[in-house]
Structure formats: C-alpha cells, structure tokens
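Q&A log
Question type: sequence-to-structure
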Amino acid sequence: MVISLAATVISAEMPPAPGDAASFPSPLQKKTIVFLGDSITAGYGVGRNEAFPALIQKKIEEAALPYEVENAGLSGDTSAGGLRRLDWILQRPVDVLVLELGANDGLRGLSPGVMQSNLQLIIDKVKAQNPFIKIVVAGMQMPPNLGSEFATQFQKVFADLAAGNDAVLIPFLLAGVGGHRDLNQGDQIHPTAAGHKVIAETVWQNLRPLLGQR
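Response status: OK
Response body:
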C-alpha cells in the first residue's frame, strides 16, 4: 500500500560531521556505507539508534563484516539538497552508497525529470571519487491524490536510475510499512521503531549481497 508522505518536509537536523583528512580509513580499516536520505533515513520521531541505518550497523556487526555506517539523513531534504551537501559528505571515502532521496521532491510537485537529473549527478559525483563504489537506490511512491501520471513518472525514476548505473534497486523502501497504522507514528507518515525494523530487513536483503564474505 502507498503511504501519504505529505508532511515529510520538516525541520532540518544535520548529520554528524564526517572525519577530517587525518581520520581517513587506511586499507586495513573498515569501509564506509553512507545512507544519504531524508527524514526516513534520519529517523525522525525515533531514537537515532532505532532508525534503520543503525539497525543495519547492528546486522553488519553480527555478521562480522568490515563496514561502518554513516547516517547522512536530513529531515526535509530533497534531491537538490542532497546534491548540495554531497561534497561535504565526500570529505571521507565512501564504499557503498544507499540513496534515499526524492520523496520531498514529489510532495512538492517538482519535476520527476529534474529529480532524476539531481540524483544522477549525485551518483556521478560519488563514482568520480570511487569508480568501484556500490550503490543501492531506495525507491519511493507517491500517493494517488497527486495524479496517476505523476505517480507513475515519479516511481519510474528510481528504476531507471538503478538500471542505468548498475545499482541495486529497492522498488519501495516502505514496503510492509506504508499504510500500516501500527508501524507508523501518529502522523501516519514516519515509521515507528517497529516500522524501522521492517525497513531494515528490506534494506538488508538488498544490501547484504554487496558486502561480500566475512
């Protein structure tokens, strides 16, 4: 079911600052997975340790894999906003990018074509830093009240990005969560801690094969 995300545009909270040049990991240190997203990634309304990126970090540790997660979620962010802050995020090497942006573009009625261009520029910039980077594109859906044609064009952007960039596609990040009242907060927009657990399982199923063996 498609969840209405009409109130996702909310106040901003900057993610933790990445390490400076002196703290860049050596080849023997852990690799970095960056979750670049909006309020869903940021964990709006739940503890940051309850948001799905933190739950992915726990799964990584349980699997004894040499990766660390950086939550670069920013409430209210758009594809253009993610592009603007990308240089700051890329101050440290990125080995895996989970791209979760676009919902706020759709809710503001911005052109899916412009959104796709912004997201492609993000992908191009991370590939310029690391040609071997692995990318996961987290797809979203728009509520039907925005029009079926717009919703179709919006959803197609994520599939096209994944296909054109050899990226893994999560067709709908909120699968099993969107439209389920018991898994969303009172606004029926942002997932509860239980909802984030469902999201983490969806992401892990797609992310885990990219991380190799322990």
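Response note: The radius of gyration is 16 Å.
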